[in-house]
Amino acid sequence: MNSLFWTQISAIVRIEMKKTFFAKRGLWIYLLALAPVALFFTHSMVEIHEHGARRQMVQKSARQLTERDLFSIGIGMSREDVIARLGEPPVSRTRNRRMRTGRHSSIIVPTEIMSYSDGNNELVLAVQNGAVTGIQKASGISLGQDSYVFAGVFQFFFLRLAIFFGCLGIFMNLFRGEMLDKSLHFYLLTPVRREILMIGKYLAGLLAATVIFSTSTALQFIALLLQFDAAVIAQYMDQNHGLAQMAAYLGVTVLACIGYGSIFLAAGLLFRNPIVPAAAVLIWEAANPVLPALLKKFSIIYYLKSLCPFEITLDPGMPPLFALLASNPEPISRYIAIFGLLAVSILVLLAASKRVRRLEINYSAD
Amino acid sequence: MAVYKRSYRPYSGETTPVWSRFLVLYRFSRRNLFRSKVQTVFFVICLFFPLLCLLGIYANSHLNAITFLSRSTGPFLDVNGRFFSIYLDVQAAFAFLLTAFIGPGLVSPDLANGALTLYLCRPLSRTEYVLGKISVLFITLSWMTWVPGLVLFFVQASISGWQWMWDNLWIAGAIVLGSLVWIAVLSLAALALSAWVRWRIVAGALLLGLFFFGAGFGRAINAVLRTQQGYLIDLSQLVSIIWHDLFRDAGEPPLSVSEAWIALLAFTSFCLYLLMRKIRANEVVR
């Protein structure tokens, strides 16, 4: 009997694969997954360009500068003082700036823009009438800083929005999409148990979601590392737990697909309009930190945040309500988190299997 | 009369004036709108907060008469630009949810069932069709945003005197203009998605995704590229910047008001373009 069930499940997965991976209706999910990849790729390209410009500046510099030299310059210093400390600027240009002197009068003041760099930091000075009137400092980004930014984007954008809405699109489409296409009755007329049909569809959706979003996570990580030298990457991967972090992000992505997938599969069986469950789950997940301890365990983000490799400290200027929603007051152990998430997903799937046994089709209502 | 004697005879009754023809669509759509109990209940819930504000304004001026609160010096609620800005924030969230429910069902059934030809073979232009469909959202959302807002404003004016009203007339303008901007953005986004996606329920989910995803991705752009330009794709933030300016809130917005206006104009123009591309009586399929 078991072999029959497995044969049926694999047949359903095979049929559903084409629908989940190549459906025209699901193309937006690829865009959703690729958007952060494009973002990190753009970031790396910008950083590579800026790093190249700084290196050229170092080569043109009259002398080797340090970070201390650059940060010793202050507003009001004379041009001669600046040149005495930093040497002739490797990049310099003059612009005429119009300055108001009265309500209807203005004068044109020539402004010299002088740029210096130590290879990592860049200092841009505005000099008017022989004195420094403006200072702009920019620093190159270290891999540590970038991995922290990656953690923030992963937790607050990729998990909560991209995977969330991606799973909504994939898993609600499994049953509701068939209803819209008026093709679900073909499945229901076959000698397959309804639970087997549901498991087959769930596994097909899970496969698609996992492949799409795990690939996106890996590509984001690769895009982020593009801007750094091979030696820096090797050190990060071997000594600074880079590989472990990447594995953790991939694991969290897979678990998120399992968790949200089960919820949206059940929602697709219960609701005709996906807005209702989507808004409800979104609010439930966002309100997780303020829920009582018992209710917290019935959400997906509670377990996922505990598995993320970085704890994101909140911006002190963040409004209190947002800070409350973004916080995770009591992280739990890794094993409990994995077990808890799988338990919640199985519970939801069991509830969905009860619903699917009593499923009746009314195409006209859709 | 025998069937063979029946022939085409043009309608000879009274016709609707050209200028208000689009409102025929509104009249019929409104019936469908309130046929659903859930939507009717939700619409009523949307009016709870204005009612609460009204009670707050009333209590604000009459609390001194109540003994146990008479110790307090001055009103407990400042009815000013900030008050109306918060009112609009709350009502805008309700308006968004209502649009997600009703917006996608306005155009998609006509396109999915090939019914557009039936509209356009009548003396109704494409522009009037779009205007008629938009008016459903425009009028419904007006009833829960700027109309109750103006009622609150005039109630406060009647309590505080005409001098208050004259001094704060700009607030009334801000309520109306701020609401109209939000309604225009919501209506055009909902109709464009409805026309292109065709599946009513998918269009609703996409509208939800458009606003949430835009906000999230905009913040991700800001964090990764160390810029503030990510807010340009966050529609709710753009509208919030405009409201910030209209209600004369203190503080520095992340983008300039002109940038916010330009971005919103570009977005609404794009939605209108998408809509007009789809609203055609005949579609040539190659």
Describe this structure in words.
The complex is a heterodimer of chains A (366) and B (286). Helices cover 64% and strands 11% of the residues of chain A. By secondary structure, chain A is α+β, with helices and mostly antiparallel strands. Chain A folds into 2 domains: 272 residues, no CATH class; 75 residues, 2-Layer Sandwich (Beta-lactamase Inhibitory Protein, Chain:B, domain 1), CATH 3.30.1450. In chain A, a hairpin with a 3-residue loop joins strand 2 and strand 3. In chain A, helix 7 packs antiparallel against helix 9. The longest helix of chain A is centred in the middle third of the chain and has 38 residues. The model of chain A has no long low-confidence stretch (mean pLDDT 85). Chain B is an all-alpha fold. Chain B has one domain. Helix content of chain B is 70%, strand content 0%. In chain B, helix 1 crosses helix 7. Chain B is globular, with a radius of gyration of 23 Å. At the A-B interface, helix 2, helix 5 and helix 10 of A face helix 4 and helix 11 of B.
Question: What tags apply to this protein structure?
Answer:
heterodimer, A: 366 residues, alpha+beta, 4-stranded antiparallel β-sheet, 14 helices, B: 286 residues, mainly alpha, globular
Distance between the termini of chain B: 45 Å
Count the domains of chain A: 2
* Overall outline of chain B: globular
**What can be said about the biggest beta sheet of chain A?**
4 strands, antiparallel
Oligomer state of the chains in this structure? heterodimer
Q: Report the helical percentage of chain B.
A: 55-70%
Protein structure class of chain B: mainly alpha
Overall pLDDT of chain A? 85
Which of globular, elongated, flat, extended, rod-shaped describes the shape of chain A? elongated
Structural class of chain A: alpha+beta
Biggest interface pair, counts: A-B, 32 and 21 residues
What is the helix tally of chain B?
13
Q: Figure out the total of helices of chain A.
A: 14
Helices and strands of chain A, in order, run as HHHHEEEEHHHHHHHHHH
Give the tally of β-strands of chain A.
Answer: 4
